[in-house]
Amino acid sequence: MDRLEAMSVIIAVTETGSISAASRRLKSPVATVSRKVAELESRLKAQLFQRTSRRMTLTDAGRSYIDACKRIIEQVDDAEREVSGEYRIPKGGLAVTAPWGLGHTHLVPSAIEFLQAYPEISLRLMLTDRVVNTTEEDIDIAIRVGALPDSGMIATRIGSIRIVVCGSPSYLEARGRPGQLADLADHDCVTIDDRVAPSVWRFVRGSRAKVAPIKSRLCVNTSEAAVLAAIAGAGLTRVMSYKMDAAKQAGTLAIVLDDFEPEPLPVHIVYSPRKPVPMKLRAFLNWMTPRLKTRLALD
């Protein structure tokens, strides 16, 4: 039995919580992962996991063993990085995730410049609006929008994003600019939902919450489509500020009701703590943090 491979398998099972999730992370058949766990338990003559229909949790013996395994694997990984030069020069691969729109608007342009500055580093960008499990999907760095849950991750705030109501100048000239939330009931609205067109927009600022009835004339399932419809004069829409910023700069959309905006959403760069920090990770953080701060501030 390959001991390091077996250790990697049980670490994956521990961190993902199940054989099937570990198999996806390891890109290995479920039967293979299950067999390796069983073989290791047989060799150790100890039960490492308590098995339920939903999740596998460590036994007392498993907890002490997994801590040792993690230290060993980290030492091996550190040794390999040291030999390959990752701790001496910025080189190697990095995986980064970000929300789809934020990634397209801000991350990709800066990432291209980063690759030109660091020719020995490669990037894998996962742009998606779902919250990616960085451990399960082998992600080094995540850009998160919104409040962060408590975790052992290191987080650096790089800015904030407004949630704005906007419309085209031609539409506002024809229908008038709303001055109060109650005015939204007299306007056509472009709403965003996958199933049913919403009938209200909720505005929350601090402890104050208000609900404004709206008339949804067009409902789409992406904010990008909502922005295009608003530019074309279909009505008012409500989106994150960075998604309409280019249109605002071009004069094709204008923000209204800004006095009623909710508190801006914080944006953070998040990553797992490492000692020492690989040079490629340090280079990315040092390059990307000030540039994303600048781009978000311009929004």
TrEMBL record:
<keyword id="KW-0238">DNA-binding</keyword>
<dbReference type="GO" id="GO:0043565">
    <property type="term" value="F:sequence-specific DNA binding"/>
</dbReference>
<feature type="domain" description="HTH lysR-type">
    <location>
        <begin position="1"/>
        <end position="59"/>
    </location>
</feature>
<dbReference type="Pfam" id="PF03466">
    <property type="entry name" value="LysR_substrate"/>
</dbReference>
<keyword id="KW-0805">Transcription regulation</keyword>
<dbReference type="InterPro" id="IPR000847">
    <property type="entry name" value="LysR_HTH_N"/>
</dbReference>
<dbReference type="GO" id="GO:0006351">
    <property type="term" value="P:DNA-templated transcription"/>
</dbReference>
<dbReference type="InterPro" id="IPR036390">
    <property type="entry name" value="WH_DNA-bd_sf"/>
</dbReference>
<dbReference type="Pfam" id="PF00126">
    <property type="entry name" value="HTH_1"/>
</dbReference>
<dbReference type="InterPro" id="IPR036388">
    <property type="entry name" value="WH-like_DNA-bd_sf"/>
</dbReference>
<keyword id="KW-0804">Transcription</keyword>
<dbReference type="InterPro" id="IPR058163">
    <property type="entry name" value="LysR-type_TF_proteobact-type"/>
</dbReference>
<dbReference type="InterPro" id="IPR005119">
    <property type="entry name" value="LysR_subst-bd"/>
</dbReference>
<comment type="function">
    <text>NodD regulates the expression of the nodABCFE genes which encode other nodulation proteins. NodD is also a negative regulator of its own expression. Binds flavonoids as inducers.</text>
</comment>
<dbReference type="GO" id="GO:0003700">
    <property type="term" value="F:DNA-binding transcription factor activity"/>
</dbReference>
<comment type="similarity">
    <text>Belongs to the LysR transcriptional regulatory family.</text>
</comment>
<protein>
    <submittedName>
        <fullName>LysR family transcriptional regulator</fullName>
    </submittedName>
</protein>
